[in-house]
């Protein structure tokens, strides 16, 4: 009887040991499978959640608003010209843009609002903006401008941030716009701008670069075309 009990105990112990061994083997197999899955996931190409440029272009064309904010751009993307004719607003703030290419500006035939603040824009790079005949709002705050010509447009007011934030701006020409000289003078920041303008003029006189010319940058009264438009 004692030998039978011992044999039974040994059998139970062996069965328990076998069960433990099988459990360890199953756990090791599951761990190995998990490693294989993780390795496969790491090597698989990642799918970006960012919309493609083609998708963005479709949205821009549909909404009429293109947003290229804080993208580190040194140049405007070529795809912008493909939908430029549909845009009425373009936001390019917070980039590294130094100019607007003529081929882009000439395609923005319906653009009314343009934000180029916090870029590296310089005066020569804005020459093409003369093509924006429908432009009503232009933000050039915090750039590297010294001269800004925006004649013959539809500008009714100047944002104070332009006069205050563009600390190098000392020549602003707004002739042929609805904004009058009186309204321009009353704009917040005009005094600081006017001080820079006068200092620039005095420097030119001292260096005999040009004859003195007193031009505050806007017309005394709106041009006739604006007065006529208001009467229609």
Comma- or semicolon-separated keywords:
232 residues; alpha/beta; Leucine-rich repeat, LRR (right-handed beta-alpha superhelix); two-stranded parallel sheet; 8 helices; 43% helix; 8% strand; elongated
Give your account of this protein's structure.
The mean pLDDT is 80. The longest helix has 42 residues, at 2-43. Helix content is 43%, strand content 8%. The radius of gyration is 34 Å and the shape is elongated. It has two domains: 53-144, Alpha-Beta Horseshoe (Leucine-rich repeat, LRR (right-handed beta-alpha superhelix)); 148-232, no CATH class. With 232 residues, the protein is of the alpha/beta class. The relative contact order is 0.07. It has a four-stranded parallel beta sheet. It has a two-stranded parallel sheet with strand order 5-6.
How are the SSEs placed, and which strands pair?
Layout: H1 2-43, H2 53-63, E1 65-67, H3 80-83, E2 89-91, H4 102-107, E3 113-115, E4 137-139, E5 147-149, H5 160-165, E6 171-173, H6 181-185, H7 190-206, H8 224-231
Parallel strand pairs: 1-2, 2-3, 3-4, 5-6
Amino-to-carboxy terminus distance: 121 Å
Number of domains: 2
**Helix proportion of residues, in percent?**
40-55%
User: How many helical elements?
Assistant: 8
Number of strands: 6
The sequence of SSEs as H and E is HHEHEHEEEHEHHH
Largest sheet: number of strands, sense, barrel closure: 4 strands, parallel
> CATH fold name of the largest domain, please?
Leucine-rich repeat, LRR (right-handed beta-alpha superhelix)
Give the name of the CATH superfamily of the largest domain.
Ribonuclease Inhibitor
Sheet with the most strands: spatial strand order: 1-2-3-4
Sum up the overall morphology in one term. elongated
């Amino acid at each position: 009887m004692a030998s039978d009990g011992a044999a039974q105990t040994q059998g139970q112990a062996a069965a328990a040991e076998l069960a433990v061994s099988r459990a360890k083997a199953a756990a090791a197999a599951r761990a190995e499978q998990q490693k294989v899955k993780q390795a496969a996931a790491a090597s698989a190409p990642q799918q970006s959640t960012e919309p493609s440029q083609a998708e963005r272009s479709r949205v821009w064309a549909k909404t009429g608003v293109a947003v290229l904010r804080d993208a580190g751009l040194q140049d405007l993307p070529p795809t912008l010209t493909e939908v430029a004719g549909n845009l009425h607003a373009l936001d390019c703030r917070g980039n590294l843009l130094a100019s607007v290419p003529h081929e882009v500006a000439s395609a923005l035939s319906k653009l009314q609002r343009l934000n180029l603040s916090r870029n590296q824009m310089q005066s020569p790079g804005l020459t093409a903006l003369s093509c924006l005949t429908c432009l009503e709002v232009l933000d050039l705050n915090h750039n590297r401008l010294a001269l800004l010509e925006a004649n013959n447009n539809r500008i009714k007011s100047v944002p104070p941030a332009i006069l205050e934030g563009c600390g190098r701006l000392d020549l602003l020409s707004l002739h042929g716009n609805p904004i009058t000289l009186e309204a321009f003078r009353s704009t917040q920041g005009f005094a600081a701008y006017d001080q820079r303008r006068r200092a620039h003029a005095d420097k030119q006189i001292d260096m005999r670069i040009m004859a003195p010319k007193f031009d505050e940058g806007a017309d005394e009264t709106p041009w006739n075309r604006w007065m006529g438009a208001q009467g229609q």
